[in-house]
Amino acid sequence: MVINKNNIFKVGQKVYFKDEKLAYNVMALSNRYAIVSRKLHRRVDAPLLHHRVAMATYVNFTEAFIANKHNPVYSLIDFQENSRSSDNLVFSMYDYFQASDCQKAIKDLESGELMLSDRNKIALAIDVEKL
Questions:
Q1: Residue 126 pLDDT > 70, yes or no?
Q2: Minimal CA–CA distance to 37: which of 77, 93, 83, 64?
Q3: Structural domain total, the chain
Q4: Backbone φ, ψ for residue 10 (5° rounding)
Q5: Is the pLDDT of residue 129 over 90?
Q6: DSSP track, 27-73
Q7: Binning pLDDT at 50, 70 and 90, where does residue 2 land?
Q8: Which domain holds residue 108?
Q9: 17 lies in a domain?
């Protein structure tokens, strides 16, 4: 299913992805791209935090949560490719909780300075029943 962002996405709106329990906030939007983010949730995001422990980034789950609890869980959406992903930067330059940083990221996506990570890219699957 191809998503038409004009029918679903508006800045400030909440959107849900299939197979995810928590809503994301639409932070920035262009004709081709959207940026969505939400707060890290200790229980829902436990697999992500356990993965970081397994990769030896942190010693234990609690340390991983404390270190990341103020970092957003985010996705960059490409409507043209019908996909979503994180950004392609090792150390992101953007605070995806801040509208101004999200607007800059959208401009950088449009100019090609920023890209969606190919490694983390998945198909865009919006749960339209929850909208």
A1: yes
A2: 77
A3: 1
A4: -140, 140
A5: no
A6: EEE-SSEEEEEEE--TTTTHHHHHHHHHTTSSSSHHHHHHHHTTSEE
A7: very low
A8: 10-39+73-130
A9: yes
Question: What pLDDT does 91 receive?
Answer: 81
Residues written for the chain: 131
- The band of 1, judged by pLDDT with boundaries at 50, 70 and 90, is very low
- The answer to whether residue 62 is domain-embedded is no
Q: Cα-flanking dihedrals φ and ψ of residue 122, to 5°?
A: -135, 165
Q: Which residues contact 59 (CB under 8 A, 6 or more apart)?
A: 53
* Residue in 30, 131, 128, 18 with CA at minimum distance from that of residue 79: 30
What is the tens place of the pLDDT at every residue in 77-100? 999 999 999 999 888 899 999 999
What confidence score (pLDDT) does residue 3 get?
Answer: 55
- 116 alpha-carbon distance from chain centroid: 10
Is residue 95 a part of any domain in this protein? yes
Nearest to 27 by CA among 5, 38, 11, 16: 11
Q: CA nearest 40: which of 66, 1, 15?
A: 66
Task: Give the predicted TM-score (pTM) of the model.
Answer: 0.89
Please, how many CA atoms are within 13 Å of residue 50, restricted to the half-sphere of its CB? 5
Residue 16 belongs to some domain of the structure:
yes
